[in-house]
Amino acid sequence: MEKPKILLLAQVDRTILTIRGEKVMLDRDLAEIHGVTTKALNQAVKRNELRFPVDFRFQMTREEREEVVTNCDHLKTLKYASSLPWALPSTASSWRRQC
To answer: What is the pLDDT along the chain (99 residues), one digit of tens a residue?
Structure first.
């Protein structure tokens, strides 16, 4: 049996970014918190898009990605990602796994 992952508030806080004036978390950080892959998280959101408002999430621009890569050490690997990350409301970190 897998041990539950204990997350410190400070670990979650460092993943909250302000982009376009909104406090958001990137899909990769939210997926890590919930113990799923980024691909699985994005598929679940897309599969259940009727449950969410139209403007629930947004895809970052290349410029926004470059800025977060420059300013956030834990996001260095995004520099070489082939796709742009999705940003979701920071309150999404407190959701229960429903998908």
So the answer is: 555 566 566 667 778 899 999 999 999 999 988 889 999 999 998 898 888 887 888 999 999 999 999 988 889 989 888 899 999 888 765 554 333
Output the pTM of the full model.
0.76
| Residue 45, in any domain of the structure | yes
Burial of 88 (0-12, 13-18, 19+ CB in 10 A): buried
Residues of the domain holding 67 = 9-94
The C-alpha atoms of residue 38 and residue 24 are separated, in whole angstroms, by 15
The verdict on residue 99 lying in a domain is: no
27 part of a folded domain: yes
Are residues 93 and 31 in contact, defined by beta-carbon separation less than 8 angstroms? Answer: no
Say if 54 falls within a structural domain: yes
